[in-house]
Specification:
Number of domains: 2
Strand order of the largest sheet: 2-3-1-4-5
Shape: elongated
Number of strands: 5
Radius of gyration: 30 Å
Helix content: 55-70%
Structural class: alpha+beta
Number of helices: 13
Distance between the termini: 24 Å
Strand content: 5-15%
Order of helices and strands: HHHHHHHHEHHEEHHEHE
């Protein structure tokens, strides 16, 4: 096996210097992975939004059709015709939702809801639907987009007020009472939606973050890393995988207690958080092992990053303080696409072999996996 013991360079001034030497990379989006708990949460949220859009389209379409008939609108075709158009639009929108076009249907539904409320205001009936509009729009769309849609709907409703003011003989203060109530409902709905978003984020963090180190857990890391490796294969770029093991952590747990061992794990996680770019992935794989994926880096630059991580870790005050108890250091195994494989599993196998070689050679070092050289056909 091709191995190398690298002497770490002088301590880097900080993460800004490291980022300056590495190519800029966009923040990694969380993909809709096809497997894993991440996809399960996405599927539940998508299903909830789809069902809400579907049933809301049916309800609005039904009310838009029945209410003019119940109000004897046969002599007022100006009311029956637009209500019929809203009903037809709502039923078409429900069919779009059932066919899986939820994103398009959620946008169309905002327009249909605005038209429906304007018709209700023009006839001075069912005005309570106007107060249902803000929470529905804000639950169907992100907060900023939902507020923008509500501004557009407000313009439509204002036009309906102006057009129907004389016919409806509204008292001068009625529009002000109406808009005051709408603003109150919108504000409360926005606060509830924001709180719901924070709750979902907290639950997702609890589900996919290691509670001790706040790094990704294994299953989420594998989902995201698999996508990054597939992107590197497709775009013919590099990516590196580091496996990092805290040496002699068991001795610390046995001699100084698990509190000290946990403090070391948090210290290592802090170094990873400080040194890595936004596009990099890091996770705790359990026990004393961490993994890092570095998109866009070849072997030479991956070794530079590994050296910096190693230097920061072994000089960390929490590790230095425990040297009388046990020699706490770090060993790192490195594998790179395409030299060591084109699949995440192959990179894991190569990095794991390099890590085992580093520990067998005496720990406290980093090693790269051997290059895979294709054999010429005989």
């Amino acid at each position: 096996m091709n191995s190398s013991l690298r002497n770490a360079p002088p301590l880097d001034p900080g993460p800004a210097a490291l980022r300056g030497e590495l190519p800029a990379a966009a923040p990694l989006p969380v993909p809709a992975a096809k497997t894993g708990r991440l996809s399960e949460i996405d599927a539940v949220l998508d299903q909830h939004r789809r069902m809400l859009c579907f049933y809301l389209s049916l309800v609005v379409g039904f009310v838009a059709l029945v209410e003019p008939l119940a109000g004897h609108a046969g002599t007022a075709t100006w009311w029956l015709l637009p209500s019929g158009l809203v009903t037809a639009g709502c039923m078409t929108n429900a069919a779009l939702t059932r066919r899986g076009h939820t994103a398009l249907a959620s946008h169309v539904l905002v327009l249909l809801l605005g038209a429906f409320v304007a018709i209700q205001l023009l006839h001075h009936t069912g005005i309570s639907w106007a107060f249902v509009l803000p929470p529905l729009v804000l639950f169907l769309h992100p907060l900023r987009r939902g507020l923008l849609y509500l501004l557009l709907v407000a313009a439509l409703i204002t036009a309906a007020f102006v057009f129907g003011h004389v016919r409806l003989m509204l008292r001068d203060h009625e529009p002000f009472e109406f808009w005051g109530s709408i603003l109150a409902v919108t504000a409360v709905s926005a606060l509830l939606v924001r709180d719901l978003g924070h709750t979902v984020a907290a639950v997702t963090t609890a589900a996919f973050r290691d509670p001790l180190t706040d790094l990704y857990q294994r299953d989420l890391f594998e989902d995201l890393a698999q996508r990054q490796v597939a992107t590197a294969v497709r775009e013919k770029t590099s990516c590196a995988l580091l496996e990092l093991d805290v040496d002699n952590l068991k001795l610390v747990n046995d001699r100084a207690g698990h509190v000290e061992g946990d403090r070391i794990l948090r210290a290592v996680a802090g170094v990873l958080a400080d040194e890595l770019r936004g596009a990099d992935l890091s996770a705790r794989f359990g026990g004393d092992e961490f993994v890092v994926l570095l998109p866009g880096l070849d072997l030479a630059r991956a070794l530079d990053v590994a050296q910096r991580l190693h230097e920061r870790i072994v000089r960390h005050p929490d590790l230095v303080r425990l040297q009388p108890v046990a020699e706490v250091t770090a060993s790192i195994g490195i594998a790179v696409h395409p030299q060591h494989g084109a699949r995440l599993g192959e990179l894991f196998a190569a990095a794991d072999a390099a890590l085992l070689a580093a520990k067998s050679a005496g720990k406290n070092r980093l090693m790269a996996a051997p290059m895979v050289v294709p054999q010429a056909p005989s």
